[in-house]
Structures are given as C-alpha cells and as structure tokens.
Here is the input.
Amino acid sequence: MGIHNEDIAVIFEEIADLLEIEDANPFRVRAYRNAARTIRGLSRELGDLLAEGKDLTTLPSIGKDLAAKIKEILESGHVSALDKLHREIPASVEDILKLPGLGPKRVKQLYHEHDIKTLAQLESAARSGKLQALPGFGKRMEQNILENIHALQTKEKRFLRHKATFYAEPLLHYLKKHKSVRETVIAGSYRRGRESVGDLDILITTGDQELVMEHFIKYEEISQVVSSGQTRATVILACGLQVDLRVVAEKSFGSALYYFTGSKAHNIRIRRLAQQQGLKINEYGVYRGSKRIAGDSEQSVSKAVGLPFIPPELREDRGEIRAALNHQLPQLIEAGNLKGDLHVHTIATDGQGTIKDMALAARKYGLDYLAITDHSRHLAVTHGLDPGRLSRQIDEIDELNTILKGVTLLKGIEVDILENGTLDLPDDILSRLDLVVAAVHSQFHLTRRKQTERILRAMDNRNFSILAHPSGRLLFEREPCNLDMEKIIRKASERGCFLELNSQPQRLDLIDIHCQQAKNEGVLISINSDAHDENDFNNLEFGVDQARRGWLEKKNVLNTHPLKSLKRLLRQTMS
Ligand code: DGT
Ligand code: CA
Ligand code: CA
Here is the structure.
C-alpha cells in the first residue's frame, strides 16, 4: 500500500506536462522532469530515506521546494500543486494528453491555438481532415490519432455507478447461485458509493475455488477473459465493464474487503496508523510480529488499529480517520430518513405522469410529501409554465390535496434563473407557492465572475428557496459551470436558503465535497429526485449515497423534516 518512487515520478511528470500546457516557465517544467528522472534512478525508496532522516535536497535535481513536495506526496498521497493544475486545465484536455503519440507541446497547440479541448473535438477535426493541415501534424499522425481514439473509446471507460448496478446485480446473483459460493461482495469505488466506477472488484469466499472460478468464467455476459488464475480473474463484460474477481480465504475476508474497498489514499493512512502501533496490515490480516491478530471481519481490522468502523463512503482520506480517532464520525443519513421530495415534474411540462400519478408513486415509495415543480416558460422545449398555467396548476393542487390520503402536495416551480440573475416568473405568482426551486438551464459558459453573480443575485429574491443542480454538470457530457461554489454556499448560509443534491445519476449535483462544505456552513441540503416519471423516485438512493460521501447526517438534510417543520423552514426563507 506504500507510495513508491515510481508513483512520485509519475506525479512530477504529470505536473511538468500540465505546466507545459499552461505555457509555464520552461525551467520549471524541466526541473520537474529532471527530478522525475533522478527519482527513477534511485536505488532506495524515498519513503525509507525520509524515515531515516536523510536530507532529500542532497539528491541531484531535488531542491527545497521539490523535497517538500515529495514529503507531501509521501504523507498524503497527493500534492496540492497538481490539484491546482487539475482545477485550471479541463480534465478533457488531459484525456487528449493521454493519447499515445500526443505530447504536451502538441496538446498545448491544439488547446490554445485551435480550441480543441476534448477528444470529441479532436476526433471530428481528424475525421474532416483538418488536423493533417496543422503545422507538425500530417496525414500519418491524423490516422494514428483516429486509431488511438478508437482504442481508447473501447478501453478505458468509466461507468456511471447507476449504470454499473444493472450489470453488477445480475452477475452477483449468478455467482451466488453456485452452491460452493459463500460470501460475495463488490468492493472498490462501487462500495464507496462513487458516482462512477472504473471497474468492479468482486470478492468471494468459497469452499472450492476451482469450481467457482470455472463457474465465473462461464458467465454468458463475458466478452473477454483478460486473465484467469487460481484465486484471481479479470474479465470484460459485453457492455465494456471490467470485472476483477478475487477468491479470498474466509479468515482474511475482512482484511481483503478493507484493502479492496480502498480508497488507496485511505488505505495508506490506515497502514501508517497501524505501523505507529507496531502493527502490520495488508489484505491477509493484521499482524503483530508474525502473530496474526485480526482479519476475519472489517470490524476486527478497524478494532485492531484502535478505530471504530468507518463507513466505506467516507474512506477517501478527507479527515475520516481523524474524526474516527476523536469519536466524531458522522451518523450518516440513510434512505429511510427522507420524508419527502421537493423537485418533481409532470405532464404539464416534460414529465410523464400527472400530478396525481406522481403523488401516488411518491406515497408508494414511502414519502409523506411531494413538491410539484414543473419548468417555467423560459425553458420552451419543455413547454414551461407561464403565470396563467401555473396559477391553474396551483388551484389543481389545492383541490387534489383535499382528496389525496397519506401524501401532501406542495406547490412549487423549477424556475429558470435568467442570464442577468432575475427569475423567469414575476414575484406575485412566485409568492403564492410553497417553495421556489431555481435553476440555470442556459448560458452555461459565462465567466466565473458573471456566473457566480448571476446565481447570487437570484438567491437575493425573497421567493427563492432551493438552488437546483447547482453546478449544472452532466457526468461524461457537460462540465460543471465555472462557479465560485464557496461563495454560493456562504450566501445560502447568510440568506437561510437551501441547496439541492439532485439525485439523477448523471447529475449527482452538489458533489460530495461541496455537500461537506455546505454542512460545515450550516446550509441544509435538499436531496431531490427530479423525477420525470413514476419510477424516478428510485434515484433518491443514489442521491443519498452521494450525501453520505459528503458526510451528511439526517439533520443536515431539509427533506428529512416532517411536513410541519419543513413548511416552517420554507417560510423562513421568505422573510
Ligand atoms: P475505480 O475502479 O477506478 O473506480 O476505483 P477503485 O477505488 O475501485 O480502484 P481499483 O479498482 O483500482 O482498486 C480497488 C481497491 O483496491 C482500491 O480502492 C484500493 C485497493 N488497491 C488497488 N491497488 C492498490 C495499490 O496499488 N495500493 C493500494 N494501497 N491499494 C490498492
Ligand atoms: Ca474498481
Ligand atoms: Ca480493480
């Protein structure tokens, strides 16, 4: 689990590449490259040298600054200089950089001179023959690029976790069918509840590993067996998802589960904590000297290093170990804590169900209340509501509430935030509603300052209740808006209004770290389905998973409140 010299060299090379794309001072770029070379040539691990108290600046090409960065990487698994570059350069540009044959110089040229910043843009330039005309490219290179993009598209693809569940669950079911399979569990990012997964890491225990491996390899959805051995196999499913299966011994199940759940950064910290207590920890168990003291369950592993159980969603090295040591782990929210849903569409705009359909579906899902929030007129493609239609919907909801049993409807709207920060409908109609959910649906590319001011201004409206899908991102499709989210969170705190965690699997917006920030600022989060049909309430579970990754407790979530106190909270924003 340690950090090796190679890991550090890779980080320094990435920094050099990104600095080069940013047109940084060539001396700085070279300093990182030279350091990477030095590190690769060392005969000892930097971690060991540091532990022995060696002064790293005595190594060639390592000055004070780089020595400090090495220390930072060894201690935390990452380095803030690289984190900063990741914030500045779109991730999609880095995707281009990863294409074989395209170095930082060419990527810089594509990005700065030709505004090519995604693989899709690169592909279309190559297809239309425009790329070969650029200085330093040419026909061969264009052809290579097309081939490499194709190879990449069929290979390294992350899956929405939501999508992965569709393949994971039948596979688990298939594995469990075999009579000698005992435990099966999906570890890795899937278990940590990440919004997307690179692959599935499945652990099983069995009395007969040979038979079980044979059974696994015969799964009909497998399109390619990458490798298979006695205790481990890697396969690709027809959908493109990779699955790593490991058979582990029963007595090591807990330590294997802990290890393969990750994250890697969390594991590194746990291992260090164990070392401080004279213990050794790996995927087989926890050891004092040669004596094995724990490993059959995850609880036994945690306990051996003096920690309470840390929920997988928190295992990202974001302070969870410190919190655990101080007995301050959050009591994470659970799906059953939600009492209602505050963002739902109907056939009046782009939904599939009537108000009544949606109300009954919400009741069936176990919710006590439901806010109807159709789109406003500015979003014409959805046939958004104008004041007249909204007024009639208000009357319709009042009437339905007199006959519906077991569920209460609230009157709302998902109103567009216009480019200048005003809301798309007049105050006199908005003030008749129980809540106003406001959202950006246009002009996603304003500058950071303008986009932030636009939203802050909207939040100043007295009728504003909840900011919907605050960043506007669509996973794998649209980058988040360029926004100062910290400012928005602070504003919500001052103003006493709320932020949404939109549960659509492709949105999952707010993201986890912003949930955590909102919690720290005392801002309540509304976990909403944004349902467009009766089945979409199931999305709420993905929203809750994300909320757990954001450290949220029941008390941090607006719609865990019973109707009466919810209404009071909503009214408070209007005063
Ligand atoms: P993914 O698949 O990219 O969504 O992310 P993970 O977290 O599932 O990563 P994966 O599949 O590469 O590995 C699963 C877990 O196994 C990971 O979270 C921690 C553990 N692990 C794998 N390789 C290493 C390693 O080289 N060092 C350490 N410390 N842990 C590792
Ligand atoms: Ca994985
Ligand atoms: Ca894996």
